[in-house]
Amino acid sequence: MQSLNNLYLKQNTPNTFQQYSYQTAYWCSLLFAFFIPISTALMNLFLLLSLAFIILSGELKNHLIISWKNPVSKVAILLFTLLFLGTFWSTAEGNDAYLTLKKYSELLYLGILLPLFQTESKKKLGIDIFLVSMLTILIPTYLIYFGIMQEFTTFTSDSYDANFTVDEGFKSHIITNILMSFVVFISATRAKLNIGNSRLRLVYILLFILSAYYTIFISTGTTGTLLTYVLVTLFLFQHFKKKYIFYLLLSLLVLIVIMKTPNSENKDGTVNKLLNRLSSLNLNTSHRNTNHRPQLYINSIKMWMSDPILGTGTGSYNAAFQTKRPVIYDITKGSKRNPHNEYLLIAVQLGLTGVLLLLYLFYVQIVASKKINNNEVKYLSQGLVLLIVIGCLGNSLIMDSGEGHFWAFFSAVLFSKTNLISNITFPK
Asked: Range of 369's domain?
């Protein structure tokens, strides 16, 4: 290990252009994070620019080495490698295998971005940028919600109009509410940790109230609403320990009260969605108005059982559904490419091998979070793991573009110091 470190320490001091390129790569990564909940096009642009400037800085090799030595990014790379190998036995039609593999590219981006956030100040700025980005959603949302301004169009073309709405923000209600649930958790954590700074603490308390109210009462995103309760429960466990049971019972009581609130359309919608999905398990599958998610889950498990070890290959979910469950495929063809469950999606494509590797990735993140010295980073890393573990039950969070890039960015920020090579130097 020492000889490997010496190899890098003997490298020449980076020139001015390399230093400039490396700093630009970092700022582009921040802009990439800023646009995750706002614009997919700009998100992808700044991610591409960040990768380009890392190459121009001459640090790509060091990034790859650190990524391989970091336990979190190493397992992510292995999962992507398995997805790549899965294209060779895939039964996918056309270019579905390639397109699906491309959607999982954030597993590689995690490792490439990770070395950019080696210092505590860079980590903090990365988190701050995300909060500022979400404020650009919260502020106009409340202005519209209270009738101060109207919903507006953000992009117009001949075939498509993008509108900012109270429920969806700049994108969809699903991703916006999932990301907002993490804002709830970050603001609660910072309010608790900033006891000595009353003004800053007040800011985070206010942010907690606004974001929590949004996830519970305004947005119709079911996953984000449930994640809010899960993350608040984790927050209580992290900071109150012995009082955990009492606070958990109290939070459940509040949940019940909110469910019964007559004006809480979002909660009524969330509860009704869950009850509808449970009841649809017993409905005739030929009924085309049925809520199909439970049926998708059941049939995905059946498809998995027919190829339990390695699955039917990367990008093969649609083809497997069509050939193995043709009757159900015809009914649920609107969801034929996605069971809205990351575990089942991986299971159909890569079998038990892929599921175990995905679970191992989350396990490594849990173990790594316990080794983080900075309390804020430690608590947030645990929240991120819980968010992705629970969120993947109701959505394909890693494959989905916005949610997957959000997870990759925060994994890079929060787990960047768990590498085994600690003294490789980068341009200042």
From this structure: 16-150+158-414
